[in-house]
Amino acid sequence: MSFPLDVLTPESWVEVAESDPIALLNDHAHCELKAASTAHSLIAKNPGYTELAQALAEVVIEEMEHFRIVLDRLEARGGALSEQSENAYAAALHKRSAATRKSLVLDRLVIAHLIEARSLERFHLLAHHASDPDLRTLFAELLPSEAAHQGMYAKFARKLFERESADARIAALRAIESEVMLSLAPGPTVHSGFPSGAFESAR
Ligand SMILES: [Fe+2]
Ligand SMILES: [Fe+2]
């Protein structure tokens, strides 16, 4: 499987991510909830794009289904959903993109594409390398759907905007995404940074 990202996460990240499965599942449940809410808000703010609205409605349904699955796993392990906290990764992407932004809609589609792509990359690592078989099964189940989501956001970015400007913005935000990722600390969350010293092995 290939991922539309400039820097790839080293396998050693998995050990850090699954060091606290309850924290990981809690963060993951919030990611699914935020993914649904991003799609929901893109529909509400762009009422003129019917085909996009139809595709996003499907995403809302799927992300809420993922949320329910992850919440079940969290509770089965004795965890409970915490209050929502800021996702430093997503917040940094939005903040960093604003300085060079030409279209808010295009940037929101491209950032959603990148967040889905990074989540897909992380789920793929966990599906293949987590030591916990339940975690491997959970993340393997979610892979096809997240692969489709990242592709759908890129497709609409290129469809609703001029192909060249969409491609240029995807490339620019991919570069920003890698800088943001490399600035974050590692930890048991879906979008945590790389373990220290792992950058060279990731290139
Ligand atoms: Fe999801
Ligand atoms: Fe998704």
Task: Provide a brief overview of the structure.
With 203 residues, the chain is an all-alpha fold.
Please tell me about this protein's structure.
With 203 residues, the chain is mainly α. The protein has a single domain, classed as Up-down Bundle (Ferritin). The protein has eight helices and no strands. It has helices spanning 13-17, 21-45, 50-76, 88-98, 104-129, 133-160, 163-183, 199-202. Helix 3 (50-76) packs antiparallel against helix 6 (133-160). It is globular, with a radius of gyration of 16 Å. The protein starts with 12 loop residues before the first helix and ends with a helix. The chain binds fe (ii) ion (2 copies). The site of one fe (ii) ion has 6 residues, from helix 2, helix 3 and helix 6. One fe (ii) ion (FE2) binds at residues 32, 35, 63, 66, 142, 146.
H-E order: HHHHHHHH
Secondary-structure class: mainly alpha
**Judging by the overall fold, what is the CATH architecture?**
Up-down Bundle
Query: How would you name the CATH homologous superfamily?
Result: Ferritin, core subunit, four-helix bundle
How many DSSP-defined strands? Answer: 0
Number of helices: 8
Described by strand count, sense and barrel closure, the largest sheet is: none
Q: Topology, please?
A:
Blueprint (H helix, E strand, L loop, with lengths): L12 H5 L3 H25 L4 H27 L11 H11 L5 H26 L3 H28 L2 H21 L15 H4 L1
Helix pairs in contact: 2-3, 3-6, 4-5, 4-7, 5-6, 5-7, 6-7
This protein binds fe (ii) ion (2 copies).
